[in-house]
Design brief:
Blueprint lengths: L1 E2 L4 H32 L4 H10 L1 H24 L23 E2 L11 H8 L6 H19 L9 H15 L5 H10 L4 H4 L5 H15 L2 H8 L8 E2 L1 H7 L8 E5 L8 E4 L4 E6 L13 E2 L14
Parallel strand pairs: 1-2
Antiparallel strand pairs: 3-4, 4-5, 5-6, 6-7
Length: 306
């Protein structure tokens, strides 16, 4: 008898935990650099030295992300049958020596290089070709990182961030990475000690403002559906929430639709529309005319109109 058979949900949970762990590593460096730039002028050589010091941990975060991808694909296989994960001939299977059954984890699992092929064999909807190329590149990078100390193997923070956003979008098409990250922060280990999540929305806003400014315009358009050629406004809700954590200027909201008389701002962090009133701000010669109805602030300069 085979016991302790895993479920698809368990694999999904483990995969997302790996993604979150990888994100934790890389976002900590991005926030540290962003905070430093808020206090001192960071010279180019100093920033280069900063990233060189972080090099091994950034590489580790990519390895963790790859492990998450493998777990996610395994979850999709288990949704068909957990036995698709078992590899090797029957003669190599572990024996039930005491009659209590053999744990599923004792069986040899199929190799990572076979996961995509097996998935596409048993699922009607195959994995995207772009994902397959990305997965193979990640798998090879991981193998190099695990088995060598090649100094030429260089992975940047941008590589990790875009990879995580990429694989999450490919594997969980009906989910939003911002929401997934928010859920992990709301259920972090610390919340079981302090029973306080008031800071989470502000932290999420700060993380994704940092990432938004860090990525290229084409990447923010792809992952967050924000065209930076549009005028960017402060999200009134993120601004309000950030006051509880670390006051920032979350300037990443856009008018939707992008019309002169539009009465809604879209924020990819909130993933929602915020109603605005079109009237002149008038504060300190601010040219803005987009005023939050709910929070009564100017979404151009941030001044309170209450």
């Amino acid at each position: 008898m085979i016991k302790d058979i895993p479920t698809s949900e368990e694999f999904d949970s483990a995969a997302k935990a790996q993604f979150d762990f990888a994100w934790d590593i890389v976002i900590s460096f991005l926030l540290t650099l962003e905070d430093a730039k808020g206090y001192v002028e960071v010279e180019e050589d100093d920033e280069k030295a900063f990233w060189e010091t972080a090099r091994q941990r950034i590489l580790t975060s990519l390895i963790i992300a790859q492990q998450g991808v493998e777990l996610a694909i395994k979850g999709k296989l288990v949704s068909v049958s957990p036995y698709l994960l078992i590899s090797g001939s029957h003669s190599e299977w572990p024996k039930d020596n005491d009659g209590t059954g053999v744990s599923f984890s004792e069986f040899r699992a199929i190799d990572a290089q076979d996961l995509v092929r097996v998935h596409d064999t048993v699922h009607e909807k195959k994995l995207d070709s772009g994902f397959s190329i990305l997965f193979e590149r990640l798998r090879k990078l991981r193998n190099k990182a695990m088995h060598t100390v090649d100094k030429e193997l260089n992975v940047s923070a941008q590589d990790v961030v875009t990879t995580l956003l990429d694989v999450h979008e490919y594997l969980y098409t009906d989910e939003n990475w911002v929401s997934t990250r928010r859920e992990f922060l709301n259920n972090s280990a610390a919340t079981h000690l302090f029973f306080d999540t008031d800071h989470v929305e502000g932290l999420v806003a700060k993380e994704f403002l940092t990432v938004f400014n860090f990525l290229q315009p084409a990447e923010t358009r792809r992952f967050f559906k924000i065209d930076r050629k549009q005028r960017l406004y402060l999200c009134p809700e993120c601004k309000y929430e950030s006051e509880k954590y670390d006051p920032i200027a979350p300037r990443y909201a856009v008018l939707r639709p992008n019309e002169p008389d539009s009465e809604h701002l879209f924020c990819f962090v909130c993933d929602s529309l915020h109603q605005v009133e079109r009237r002149d701000c008038g504060e300190d010669e601010c040219p803005g005319n987009v005023i939050s109805v709910e929070y009564d602030i100017c979404c151009t300069c941030g001044e309170n109109h209450g």
